[in-house]
From TrEMBL:
This is Tat pathway signal protein. It comes from the Bacteria. Gene3D superfamilies: NADH Oxidase. InterPro entries: Nitroreductase-like, TAT_signal.
Length: 363
């Protein structure tokens, strides 16, 4: 049963809607997430409100550890997307690769939302990774990928183990094409087992690093109240794990978090996936190139979502710098930098993650 405090908190959040007595933490989180994901109807907003609607759609993008590491600056006919370095994760992402990939994901959402609202968006990415998006009037177009923005989620549960037709893989690879990004498909059993070995090596390196574990725990949200209070971070229910009172969970979590447990989970995830797409790009690309990787990944994620597929990421082997070169060699990527490891298949949805409101990310 929810506590009285929880019922009141979420009653307030739902702006006087039906009381949530009887809901478990996952239900409460999902009710909040659904409300947060309601996009403004194209044509229903204009001027400043229309730009805010684009920012709202952008904030529904994925970000590493759900840090939402972005700021938006509204102009008259433009929006600037900037990194929020106060939300960087120096342990898992020392070179800010994931931070700029996350900005790219937000950029892609913003471009799709602009088109739906009758604006042609032209993003220019500076060498420092800041993105200036010029907006000009055009005929409104509702793309399938735009409609998929509220549905897209990172689904960390098991998938159904069925393969996907070659035509579907082509469709997904086509969606990711562009922005200097290469895709590499791994769908055979031996390849997936080699991937699992690489993920296991990544977990061993990361979970033996106290700074990595401290940072991860800092971004974990142990119940729906905690997730709603911050509007960011990794709610345990989004990984199919049970909620616990945060004071207790913070005492216990380090006993349960570890390379072996994470690799067991990854084994279940990989062995039930239809396959994995590795995204790789020019090793010298830097922030501007990483924004491009994010745009490509978000196109892939939205295309998959629109096709009724689920996906999640298994990035440890590309996050540990020393493992990147052996990983690239093992999967024939040559001198490219492996950016993201994306597992794809059909599976059940889990609760959606939360976001901070647009007002919190407008500079
Ligand atoms: C650059 C980047 C790296 C990520 N790496 C991982 C990862 O290694 N493992 C994982 O489970 N999720 C990963 N994620 C997914 C985020 O945790 C997820 O996007 C965030 O929690 C918000 O949830 P949502 O995608 O369901 O909206 C990554 C996301 C991004 C953008």
């Amino acid at each position: 049963m929810p506590t009285r405090r929880r019922v009141m908190t979420y009653g307030a959040l739902l702006a006087g809607g039906a009381p949530l007595a009887g809901c478990d933490d996952g239900d409460v989180q999902q009710a909040t997430a659904l409300l947060q994901r309601r996009l403004a109807l194209p044509g229903s907003v204009d001027g400043h409100e229309r730009l805010r609607a684009l920012v709202h759609a952008a904030t529904l993008a994925p970000s590493s550890h759900n840090t939402q590491c972005w700021r938006f600056v509204l102009g008259r006919d433009s929006i600037r997307i900037e990194p929020d370095f106060t939300r960087r994760c120096p342990a898992v992402d020392p070179d800010d690769h994931h931070l700029f990939v996350s900005l790219g994901c937000a950029t892609e959402n913003l471009v799709l939302a602009a088109l739906a609202h009758g604006l042609q968006a032209e993003p220019q990415v500076g060498r420092d990774g800041r993105i200036e998006v010029a907006l000009a009037p055009t005929r409104p177009q509702l793309a399938t990928r735009y409609a998929a923005i509220p549905q897209r989620q990172t689904t960390r549960g098991p998938f159904d183990g069925h393969p996907l037709p070659a035509a579907t893989w082509r469709q997904l690879e086509d969606a990711a094409a562009g922005n200097g990004v290469n895709t590499h498909l791994v769908s055979d059993t031996a390849g997936l087992e080699r991937l699992l070995d690489a993920v296991a090596a990544g977990h061993r390196a990361q979970f033996s690093d106290a700074a990595f574990v401290d940072e991860l725990v800092q971004w974990l949200r142990f119940d729906a109240d905690e997730a709603a209070a911050s509007g960011d971070g990794l709610f345990v229910g989004c990984s199919g794990r049970p909620s616990l009172p945060p004071w207790l969970a913070r005492r216990l979590v380090r006993r349960f978090l570890g390379a072996r447990a994470e690799t067991d989970l990854a084994a279940e995830q990989l062995r039930s996936s239809a396959g994995v797409l590795i995204l790789a790009s020019d090793a010298a690309a830097g922030p501007a190139g990483w924004v491009g990787v994010g745009r490509a990944f978000q196109r892939l994620a939205l295309e998959a979502t629109a096709a009724g597929l689920q996906l999640s990421l298994l990035n440890p082997p590309v996050e540990v710098a020393a493992l990147r070169a052996p990983f690239a060699a093992a999967f024939g990527l040559g001198t490219l930098r492996p950016d993201l490891v994306v597992r794809i298949g059909r599976g059940e949805r889990l609760p959606d993650s939360l976001r901070r409101p647009p007002a919190a990310v407008l500079a």
